[in-house]
TrEMBL record:
Gene: LDLRAD1
SUPFAM superfamilies: LDL receptor-like module
Species the sequence originates in: Bos indicus x Bos taurus (Hybrid cattle)
Highest taxon in the source lineage: Eukaryota
Domain LDLRAD1-like C-terminal residues, every copy: 73-112
Renumbered residue ranges of the record's region Disordered: 1-26
Claim: Disulfide bond is one of the keywords in the record: yes
Entry protein name: Low density lipoprotein receptor class A domain containing 1
Length: 117
């Protein structure tokens, strides 16, 4: 799972010794254009814009995949819409997880309703 990046303290400075790099902590780098970053439901956290609506829970609270923070298109053809039990996914799971004898949806629809990959 990709990490989220806290923005730092109220003064806009990052924590001492931290860097705003994948896997690290720190404020939004000044060199990044605003369209390259997206804020999560927790306003102190951000992700790269291309991580929005990718089916993966990048923010940790699904705010990058679900309303009201973002409006994502419905699940694509390789995905199954269901309330996921897997923390990595939010409202859709990859169809490759369907009918694998493991519950990935709260309602078990991945095992009984999903047509599979």
């Amino acid at each position: 799972m990709n990490k989220i990046f806290p923005q730092g303290d109220a003064n806009g400075s990052a924590a001492a010794g931290s860097k705003a790099l994948p896997g690290g902590e720190g404020g939004v780098p000044q060199s990044l254009s605003g369209f390259l970053v997206a804020h999560c439901g927790d306003p102190a956290s951000w992700i790269y814009s291309d991580q929005m609506c990718d089916g993966i829970n990048n923010c940790g609270d699904c705010s990058d995949e679900l309303s009201p923070v973002t409006t994502c298109p419905p699940c694509g053809p390789g995905w199954w819409r269901c309330p996921s039990t897997v923390f990595r996914y939010c409202s859709c799971i990859p169809r490759s997880l369907c009918r694998d004898h493991v519950q990935h949806c709260f309602d078990w629809s991945d095992e009984y309703s999903c047509p599979g990959p």
